[in-house]
Write the structure tokens for this entry.
Amino acid sequence: MALLQISEPGQISEPHHRNIAIGIDLGTTNSLVATVKSGIATVLKDYNDNELTPSVVHYAPNKTTVGYEALKFRTTDPKNTIVSVKRFMGQGVELSNKNPVQISSDILSHLKQTAIDNLGEEPIGAVITVPAYFDDNQRQATKQAAEIAGIKVLRLLNEPTAAAIAYGLENTESGTFLVYDLGGGTFDVSILSLNKGVFEVLAVNGDTHLGGDDFDRLIYDFIINKVGVNHINDVEEAALMIVSRNTKEALSINESTEVNFTLNNTPYSLEITQNDFWAISENLLNKTLTLVKKALRDAKLTIDDIKQVILVGGSTRMINLRTLLHDCFNRTPLTSLDPDTVVALGAAIQADNLAGNRVDDLLLLDVTPLSLGLETMGGLAQKIIPRNSTIPITRAQDFTTYKDGQTAMTIHILQGERELVDDCRSLAKFSLKSIPPMTAGAAKIRVTFQIDADGILSVSAVEQNTGVMSSIEVKPSFGLTPEQIASMLNESIKHAKDDIDTRLFNEAKIDAISLVETIEQAMKTDNELLTNNEEQQILLLIRQIKTQIEGINPKPILETDAPSPAAIIKQLSTRLNEVTSGFASKRMNKAIKAGLSGKNIEEV
Amino acid sequence: MWRKFHSLKFMNNLEQILKKNCFELFAIEPEFIIDTAILSSKLHQLQKEFHPDNTINNELSTNLVSAHINSCYTTLKNPLNRSIALLEVHGYPLDLAKDTQLPLEFLGEQMELHEQIDETNGNISALEELEQTINNKQKKLLDSLSDTFINKDFQEALNLTKQLGFYTRLLNSIADKIGE
Amino acid sequence: MAITLTTNAASRISTFIKNRGKGIGLRLGVKTTGCSGLAYKLEFVDSINSDDEVFESEGIQVIVDKKSLQYIDGTRLDYTREGLQEGFKFTNPNVKDECGCGESFTV
């Protein structure tokens, strides 16, 4: 039985249709799932009381494990233990013969199960956070991973924006804020203005391949350099990477730390100080500051315009980083919320908002991080939507043919800031065919770029004189093909959906049986309150429900379009509830007349 | 529920909005001088109603409307795009890519400025200094442009807008170089 | 009779109201739901209506409208943990039958 939470006045939805939605922070190092309960955003814990789930997946021939369980294999079976998969999202690589999308979907499935265990029911959907600087490919890949995990994506939300939501609601502040988000593998800087529940992002910048992992790597290289070892095997490397991370964490608290490890069966002990760490990490830290300056420039603001600097991401615990930021902004950054959980909490608040559970207005106006455009003559990129444009957005531009009688035009879609096509990321290519032959320059081809609220692009091209049209939803070049997604979906249906279907079927069955029994009892005692027509309808529905319950066995259905047996039963039960509502209120009135107040009550 | 269900009325409303020009949509007079604070608060007001986050069902159509609103916001906020939109309202459509006829004197100055950008060799402070010079020139141009619109001299406004296009391109090019 | 809260429920409600930043208590109510009868609702309260009854339990104002009260008078509200789930649970002496999920009931 699902336990109840407190709702806002007048926001109660129908019973059995509570709009519980979750927020997921799918991080490079750790992932979290959160929801809003009785008005409070809360991180959902697993059975071992952990808030964080390491974003680690271990693949054994017959078993996939995720999180702390998988982490145990990191040193014993590093080849089949995937860490930091987020760094490979939207790229054409395979890790342990698995596509990054599939690996991420395994992490998401795990989080979804944690949510179900906490909520007692399946959430209606999720807001999943992505780095603000994720490009179109990386966003699409994340969305695909969620689809494979059977999660309805209510929105992809930029991580710094999510953090600002958590902070903004906490403090109900207004002004211009800068979010400095250094995660395990990605860096974002985002400048937002907050005003009466409106979060307007002014500019973002970042690097999707710069994060805490890189600082671990610097310490690792420092150690290797210090002891002068050339050869190191897989297992030792994995172990030393863990030592390096622990060293970084120790240096986030202490001035210096002693590092102990074994290489080639030789034990070593080293002292690493804050000064050592500063010396090796200075370049990387300054690189983040350069990106901060770029964002400020784009927002046409200076450091003095920033009211507060918000720190997000576990890596912002580094002392050297905090010192640097303090000196740069001349004030102490805001760290009152846990940098590890703040993104998930913000995502949960937005999920609750999208599920329709909030009464007050919350409006997010986010931006696209990178310019979008297309290839023009001479290998040049022409921008159609400049970076930091508020999304969703539609922008159209007219092009023409350059040869007499030209009947086709190739449209090459690009993302990035550089002038040369080769320096931008190629998102997709498609052709507008059947342009009627005209003299050069006579055709008018309108190319429309649309970015939706998830930051995902679609492009269409129309020849204006004839209406010949072609369009494309830009699919990631290195993501999965529709066939691959279909086969993975089938795979996961075979393994997991079996259980889910059975559970859903059983739940629907129990509810339906109890409903039918109640009604049958009521029909016996108060038959005179029923019209003939009502009785016929009720009996028909009861018969249909019984047939569904007895006749069908809850095997997975492979055509995803067909309603599941559980859904059919639920549908019939809803219908039965509707049909009997008149009967129900008549019975209640009768009961009241008979006993309690003698007054007629309307709907309570 | 504060989220809007899609009634027929709401859908009609969406259609009306897509037909409006940017000035009509933001309910501001078709003039060159605008109050950016009003623009921003009007954006918030419109998006509270039409942003796909705030509406249930039919996300596709609200996405389009919300996109149109943002598109107009981007247009109105930027002086060059605002000027082009304003010219169109007054029946003087301008295609910057095609219509590049300008006085030789102006084009000469542009070439000189481009050369100066190249001569900085990416030196940030030199670029910033140049940026300041061009900003000042642009500011003067914006003042004249504003006057021509007030005097309803749209032909002259068209000429000045073409020039503004050149300054904008120069400034973007400098910003990109500083960014690198 | 009255509506009562367990200490645990009261302390949670007080936290939730404090976090919300406003509110004078907790509203318990029922709403009709087809033939499975009635379903509970729990809401924050910003204002008291003329047909409301107000109880006090464990320092929390519990508000119930008169119509709902007939079905839930004598209820004890607890905040409990079952497995990983946490939330409020009704113990209602008027209930004859409950649906499988405990959200709706008949009297």
Observations:
- Chains C and B do not touch (no CB pair under 8 Å).
